[in-house]
Each structure stands twice: as C-alpha cells, then as structure tokens.
Amino acid sequence: MAKQDPYAALRIKEFNIFLFVRFLLVFGWSMQFIVIEWQVYSITKDPLSLGIIGLMEIIPAFSMALFAGHIVDQKEKRNLLAVCTAAFSIISLGLFVLTTDSVLLNWSTNTILYAIYALVFFGGFLRSFFGPTIFSLVALLVPKSIYQNAATWSTSTWKTAAVSGALFGGLFIGWFGVDKTLCLVFALVLCSFIVLFKIKKKPILNTKKGEPMKQSLAAGITFVFNNKIILGVLTLDMIAVLFGGTTAILSVFAQDVLKVGPEGFGILNASISMGSIVTMLITTYIPIHKNTGKKMLISVFIFGLSIIAFGLSSIFWVSILALFISGAADGISMVIRQTILQLKTPDDMRGRVASVNSMFVGSSNELGAFESGLAAKFMGPIIAVVFGGTMTLITVAVTSVVNPTLTKLELTEETTTPEIEG
Questions:
Q1: Cβ neighbours of residue 275 under 8 Å, at least 6 residues apart?
Q2: Rounded Cα distance, 193 and 312, in Å
Q3: Which of 126, 190, 220, 403 has a C-alpha 20 to 30 A away from that of 230?
Q4: CATH for the stretch 16-198+213-414
Q5: In whole angstroms, what separates CA 101 from the centre of its chain?
Q6: What is the mean pLDDT of residues 192-216?
Q7: Rounded CA separation 240/246 (Å)
Q8: What DSSP designation does 108 have?
Q9: What is the rounded average pLDDT of the residues 372-378?
Q10: What are the domain boundaries of the chain?
Q11: Within a 13 Å sphere around the CA of 311, how many CA atoms are in the beta-carbon half?
Q12: pLDDT by residue (tens digit) across 82-127?
C-alpha cells in the first residue's frame, strides 16, 4: 500500500483558497457567537436567555434544511456560497449597530434583545444553506481518493478558526469592547467574500436538475434512512451534541461558577477547539479506515466522560483540561463522521444528505443550547452539565448494541461506495 500523503489536499490551489475562506467565515462566526452570548447574558443575567438564542437559530435552520439541500443540489456551489457570505455580512453589520453606544443609550433593553434574537433567527435561515453548500463544494475541489485527507484539513481549519474566534472573542470583549469586536467580524466576512471569487465556478453534477422538489426531498430522506451506517452516525452525534454540549452555558460557568471574567470565558471556549485541532492534525498522519466504527464510539464515550468532569470541577485549570479532552474526543468523531459522509454520499445527492445532517447534528447544537439553558435554569448549571454527559454515555452504550453495522464499520476500499440497506 502506498504511503499516505498527509498534505495531499493542500497541494491543490483552490482547496487552499477554500480553507482560507472557511477560516475567515468560521473565525468571524465563532467570535460573533461568543460576543453575543456574553452581551445577552450581561443584559439579562438569565441563563434561559442563552437557550433562547439557540432556539431562535434552530427554528429556521431545521425548518429550511431540506429545502436548502434541494436548492444546493440544483445550483452552482461557488456562487451560492458567495450569496450566503454576503447575507452573513448583513447580520454582522446589524449586530455591530445594535451594540454601539448610541443604540444602547437610546433603545430599551428589550428592544435590543429582541433585535438580536431577530438577527440570530436570520442567521439560522442562512446556516441551513451554508453547511450543505460547503460540504458539496469540498467534493468538487479534490479527487475522491483524498476525501479523508480533505475532510481532515477542512475540519481542522474549521476548528482552528473556532478556537481562535472563541479565544479572541473573549479577549477582545475585555480589550476593545463588544461593538468594536463585532465591527471586526463584519470586516472579516467582507474579506472572505472577496477572496471566494478566486475559486472558479463548478459544474452542477446533479443529473436530475429541475426535478420536482417533493420528489427530490423524498429521494434524499429515503437514502439517509435506508443507509444504516449514515443514519447511525448522524443519530449518535445528534444525541451527543444535544445533551453533551456545554458551550451555550459556558458564560454562566465563567461568570458565576469559576468567576474568571471575559478572558477566562474565551479560554474555556478555546480549550474545546484546541483539543479538536490537536487530534485532527494527528489524524492526517494516522488513517482511520481500520476499526472506524469502534473508534467513533470510543471517542464519543470519552467526550461524555470529560463533560461530566467539567460539570463537577470548580478549579479553572481542571475545567480547561476537561474541555480540552472533550474537544480532542469530538475532533476524532468529527473527522470520522465527515469522512463517512463524503465517501458514502453520491455526488448528485450531497446537498440533500448534508441538509439531513444539519437537521440531525447542526440543529441539535442550537436545540442543545436551548436544552442546556433550560436545564441550567431549573436544575442549576452543574447538574445540567453532568446530566448531559451521562446521557451521552448512555447513547453510546445503546448505539453499540442496536447498530452492529456501525460498530463493525471499516472504511476499506470495498466499502467506500454508497451502500443502501433495507
């Protein structure tokens, strides 16, 4: 067997441009998320308000997901990503305006809060298009033989941007203020929009262009639910993210439990993604095609344990370590999931499969944020986090029993084509 080239995808110019664009977008989005959560909790001092942020994003993201997948499979991907980026810039500009001194002094707290929720709602609608478009575009930039390598670098770039955005988001709040930080986000999004056009337009691979929407959506849903491996991967990750996520209430821990201020808040957020970056970079050198299913289950189990450890910790450095380990475990499962989806999804159905993925996994981030905020309000933040980690462990145990196809999965050469079961 030929030696694996850990930099195979990076030798493709357009893929590098794509990574730069994705870094800018995720860096900005991550920073914006941190700043808005800090601002909203500072205004309300109510953890439920943080859950409402998640709810405001999940409603449009979930509702529009299948429709977005249909559109993505019908449209040219580069230009569609450009439209999404332009719309993102409008959201960033709006949030910047809402946090300026003139607005804060002249508008009521509720008016500002509702306006923020409205922009977050718009962002949820937009995100339903972002995920499927990016997922589909990656497959058009690299040959299938290096999908795993491309998925690793793409996900690593995403996590690197997330850790940087989270870290600098917290730091910039303390150094420059909320409004100036959001102004920087707006500038980054504009930059990504300009650079994106260095990627050439790509062909539309859907052989059923113009297919009626109802028929198109039914085909995508049927494919996912008849493929035990893809369905198992999505279900496992959905429940783990739904109950095991802590990001939504980290501001509560930073301000009320650990009492570490905005800088500590940024570090807590950054530690999650830093763990992911380390493990994902390692996977560029170590293939995950052997015992793939078992590796994913083990990584999600470790994720659940680390979340429990974070919830029980009252020491800052222990909390950082627990979040770092959770990020490391999540990074492994993320690379495995993305590789499975890329290898087992037909080219003409990538948008729809990615949309179902966003309904399962992406939307569960926001629904998980609402669940975390609600649980923190009625159970307290510590019990809420421990409960979430415990549910993650139970999910892994159940999945390993009821889905042996996933447990025994190995991504050998003969299993890299889409499989329909049932």
A1: 323, 324, 325, 326, 327, 328, 329, 330, 331
A2: 43
A3: 126
A4: 1.20.1250.20
A5: 32
A6: 79
A7: 11
A8: -
A9: 74
A10: 16-198+213-414
A11: 26
A12: 999 999 999 999 999 888 877 777 788 788 888 999 998 998 888 8
